């Protein structure tokens, strides 16, 4: 009795303190329940039934209710519940079907109070009425629920679920007369305690057994159920038909579910098998648990919040024979470990990207790419402004579509169709192709064509050399404005086909340094070759070997002749030192050393020196046309390889065809063949049959040109006797009639003949087209439904 | 004769499209006639020793074909196939070739043929089942024909079996059949072994494996131990067994594979029980299912001799003659009376806890000594025993030594809560299928008992189920094991015990001597309970070991 007095004195404390702790039990626990004072917990199992006091630092065993010499099955508990009104009253459900009540106030060692042996099978669950002192409910494997009045010896009423075993029974917290029961067949029933004849409401909640349910402590009519199908569902049962409000998918069957006090949307679950952790879910965020307790080494069998108004203490019992107190602040939060961004490619190359909303909005503020090539679509989750946790769970999803008809692909088709590959002098071909490329906004390619023209048809450019030369001199005199004017003036002579795509010009501060180093190298090259006869473009390309950097340089040649382009005024003073482009190498040396170069902020400024360089180098090139014709061939070869490696086989093949014999011998036969086949394959994918055929025809590689020779025969049937045409020509060998009669005008067709593959009738293309506009039947009257597409 | 042309393709017959079946049949007819004509022509020419061997081979091939046709003519659910097969057989006979005839007495040796549903007279629901089964396996086996007494169960059974053998699963198809062979061989069930040897070869299994377990891959050999323990003493399975299989380096099993294998093993162990328990006859097209001899030569099949049933007809006369009708009628009445008593008085004579516990122990102990008196040794047929090693390991030797079976509390680990979740996690959907099958078997009732109608048989069914689990040491806390003694008489217990533990020793005498007044369909029902309870018991032990390994 001394023990008891201590138990009762512990009732007073209202402020909960404690830490995450655990204590070892002697045997696996099946269920736990907390006393209403939040200072004691009862643990029940097959061979354990003890009361523990929850102290600040540890659990202290208070009472062993398992007394008596012989172990009795009445003590083998499937469930235990502590009365929430009376701290002396406990009830257990025994595996043999007995319901036992315990009175801790009894003076003897044996606290057993009453024994109800009415159930035929294991009792799965017992539940006290939340406010009524003497009302106890039990649910059993035999499919019955019984209500006991503890003042009487046997049950007051019996409720028949009309089905298999009852897995859980719970009195409603809010409605005095209502209780819920869950069944092994997946049903949930709501009963009125006064009406044992039939249930008030029934609905199928889960696929397979419903192991547990819990009424929401505050929201009237909210019932959470957990089932073997790994789901936790929250139902609103106030409506005539129960409505599923939330659904949480866990990773294992749900054994217990308990709403978290004071947190409207939180509930704790533990599983029956495989998974040993306890999760606390925010039901509005059903994919990631809000908190996770990982202390147990075997399945958790019982969970209970320590105090009905304190959300931070959770108690749990487990098959691993431990009793734990978990502190919410010590829980691991999977959200923190999870990657908050998601990225996924769709089937058609669309890209979906989900991230925290705050992240996305800041990014949108800049919005540099949004309008250009991609079209983000934003979905925003609807948020409940009343919820404090809403902010955590909000995210934004953006989807980036690849532009199907955009610049990505259409340039390829356009280029393929418009390029001229043969039939005109080389210079004209180059000019034409450069023009095409420029119009499509592909400046580097356009420039390349121009260069090719210069390289291989240089005599045509002689008149412009003088001008260029003078420009070089002009700039060397150091007059800033002059030089820019000169640039503009000389532009037509240099290659007026160049054009700048401003949007592509990436503006970065480090370009300045790159430029200076590049120019330095150019300079050295110039010294070596003594003529600097190589277009600066190529040299720079070689040195850097990166397309993006090439772009930096490319425009520099080009904005000179862009009429709309005006150099920003404020950039001019800065260019002062650099711009005095020297005609000779020694000046270049100076410039490379100059620290002012890196001081330039705007790219326009940094571009200037290169402009002048290229001018100079080109002008030199134009001077020296005494070089052997194959002088450039290695460069051109490298250029072709460069394009092919960039994935632009179109360029490689086109140049190869246009230049023909001039470069063919310098390039590996296999590489050529490889380019051809890739390009032809691409063309055929875009259904550019004519172009591909032209390419095949123009190709000099034998392996390619024989492609045209393969499978060229066409098998046709005679339009009269429907037999295959075996002989040559258009006369059928069997019926000795001409097969190529037009079905419309009945004349022999010469030239384009179109015929139906189904009935072998056909005729003049024009006639058939006209006929089929008005009728869908074959003009020969054979009744076949011909299609013309 | 080119080899490829004579390759008979039976799969066309499984089609639901009658014209496809028609063409397939026509093709078969041509091959058979060609072969027959060839043989006839050879016969007429003078005998040449060099040709003797090839003749024998081709005659053998033809005979196999004819046996298959015979099976089709009797067992195909499609009428057109049955008729056409018969027609082909007749035309072959007219050419002077001896055609086979079925041996035995229908699908079961225990149940008179006229009691069993004839193929062709089934109703629409059963026909759909038959067609499904035929489409999946290309045959309608005797097990199906006996189980069709309970179409509801049969449907679930076939669905499960089909899923286990042919649908998505972690194990390759030939492994599945081989595991089936291993499991059936444990009980020397030549019927199932023959059936699955054919299937095994059909899905491309290596014939070498069939020479014995030692020729199979190490991985399957490792499974032998689990098979042995599971079949005879499942309570001895520990997590060490599981660990041994899962951690065997390159021969190790994955958890999913292991669960698949365990389900297959338990399925075939219990199916072997059914085969023996209902006295399933060999399939018509398998060895021992047909004969080419004329009817006068022999009237009983090999299996009957092996089991000591010398003449089936005679036995039937004996069993019916020994017991007078009134006697057996009284049996049923007494059983019903007991059930009623138990239902009414259970609350009055409340037994103490110790009493309850000891009742379970007594029942468990007694179940070990329940054995048929005619415990003669049956030497397994040579071709079956090669599929397993350690033939001496069985249920018998430990029960004689009185070994203690530890108690397994179903409240701590049961199928519905734990087993299901584990299986479904590792081998999706199968948990659901097996769960359904258990449910149907456990809850199946027509509310009849022998000649009585509107009887609640749940008590009897539960007694049978729990008795079987009791033999495996599985205890239900909420069951009074005293009921078993009241409801199940000794001859019934002998039958249950034999079917579940040593099915190969079941005789027709045992089958006939229990529940003499009950219908055959009810005895088949009992068998369904037996095999499902056995399967669940084995599964529970195996899955518990896996769970323990995992935690």
From TrEMBL, chain A:
Please give one Gene Ontology molecular function term for this protein: zinc ion binding
Q: Which InterPro entries match?
A: WD40/YVTN_repeat-like_dom_sf, WD40_repeat_CS, WD40_repeat_dom_sf, WD40_rpt, WDR24
Q: Report the EC code(s) recorded for this entry.
A: 2.3.2.27
**Assembly and interaction partners:** Component of the GATOR2 subcomplex, composed of MIOS, SEC13, SEH1L, WDR24 and WDR59. The GATOR2 complex interacts with CASTOR1 and CASTOR2; the interaction is negatively regulated by arginine. The GATOR2 complex interacts with SESN1, SESN2 and SESN3; the interaction is negatively regulated by amino acids. SESN1, SESN2 and SESN3 convey leucine availability via direct interaction with SEH1L and WDR24.
Please describe what this protein does. Answer: Catalytic component of the GATOR2 complex, a multiprotein complex that acts as an activator of the amino acid-sensing branch of the mTORC1 signaling pathway. The GATOR2 complex indirectly activates mTORC1 through the inhibition of the GATOR1 subcomplex. GATOR2 probably acts as an E3 ubiquitin-protein ligase toward GATOR1. In the presence of abundant amino acids, the GATOR2 complex mediates ubiquitination of the NPRL2 core component of the GATOR1 complex, leading to GATOR1 inactivation. In the absence of amino acids, GATOR2 is inhibited, activating the GATOR1 complex.
Q: Please give the residue ranges the record annotates as the region Disordered.
A: 580-603
- Does the record carry ATP-binding as a key word? no
Q: Which UniProt keywords apply?
A: Autophagy, Lysosome, Membrane, Metal-binding, Repeat, Transferase, Ubl conjugation pathway, WD repeat, Zinc, Zinc-finger
Family indicated by similarity: Belongs to the WD repeat WDR24 family.
Which regions are annotated as WD repeats?
Answer: 116-158, 203-245
For this protein, what reaction is catalysed? S-ubiquitinyl-[E2 ubiquitin-conjugating enzyme]-L-cysteine + [acceptor protein]-L-lysine = [E2 ubiquitin-conjugating enzyme]-L-cysteine + N(6)-ubiquitinyl-[acceptor protein]-L-lysine
Among the entry's GO cellular component annotations, what is one? cytosol
Pathway the protein takes part in: Protein modification; protein ubiquitination
Name of this chain's protein = GATOR2 complex protein WDR24
> Where does this chain mainly localize?
membrane
Automatic annotation (TrEMBL), chain B:
One GO location term (cellular component): nucleus
Q: Which reaction does it catalyse?
A: a hydroperoxide + L-cysteinyl-[protein] = S-hydroxy-L-cysteinyl-[protein] + an alcohol
Xref: Gene3D superfamilies: AhpD-like
- Assigned keywords, A-Z: Cytoplasm, Oxidoreductase
Which GO biological-process labels does this protein carry?
A: cellular response to L-leucine; cellular response to leucine starvation; negative regulation of TORC1 signaling; positive regulation of macroautophagy; regulation of response to reactive oxygen species
Q: Name one GO molecular function term.
A: oxidoreductase activity, acting on peroxide as acceptor
Question: What subcellular locations does the record give?
Answer: Cytoplasm
Q: Which domain of life is it from?
A: Eukaryota
What InterPro entries does the entry give? AhpD-like, Sestrin
* Pfam families reported for this sequence: PA26
* Protein family (similarity comment): Belongs to the sestrin family.
Tell me what this protein is called. Answer: Sestrin-1 isoform X1
Q: Which organism is it from?
A: Chrysochloris asiatica (Cape golden mole)
